Amino acid sequence: MDFKALFVATASRRADIVISSLTVTDERLESQSFTQPYFQGALGIGVRQDSDLTGPEGLKDKTVGTVATSFGEGWLRDNQATLGYAGVKSYDSTANMLTDLQNGRIDAAVNDIVGMRYAFTQMQGLKVGAEVVTGEQFAMMMPKGSEKLEQVNAAISEMKTDGTMAALHEKWLGVAPAPDSFTVTPMPIPTAAR
After folding, report:
1. 158 in helix, strand or coil?
2. What is the pLDDT along the chain (194 residues), one digit of tens a residue?
3. Fewer C-beta within 10 Å: the chain N or C terminus?
4. CATH numbers and ranges of domains, the chain
């Protein structure tokens, strides 16, 4: 399903649960239920393996790639005056952007950290030079008032406590989660966005 269809699917109860990069927001909580967050959203700044970039300030005078209409593109637009990069190149897909990064046609790429970390487990010569925490809370979405919400939330807490979530994070993203992250910290069902 495309992203917008996910909300219709749970609201109409055609889907019991949706798992994606879904951010808990107050607006979404009006019509949907969410489990506890299991990942804190962040942007990754991807670079070639030989780069010494370690923070957003390292983008100065660089050509930076991003996916068109993404959160990353908006962040780059909002921070261009402060960070002073030479230019932004928008791509229609993450694959095209990362191929250009790998081949040196751009100096860095800004994208959702989850997709970037996974891609870098599959692509050679690239790394995450820096991470910019955005504060988004990624959680599983269910129909409003779902009778399965408590059970699913309890299962997530158990997976966090027994190390399953940490193992999945490391397997698919190539790094262990931070010890105090959403990925390993049991939390209540959200009633409001943080």
Report:
1. helix
2. 776 788 899 999 999 999 987 888 898 999 999 999 999 888 999 999 999 999 999 999 999 999 887 778 989 999 999 999 999 999 988 899 999 999 999 999 999 888 898 899 899 999 999 999 888 888 999 999 999 999 999 999 999 999 999 999 999 888 899 999 999 999 999 999 87
3. C
4. 3-38+139-173 (3.40.190.10), 41-135 (3.40.190.10)
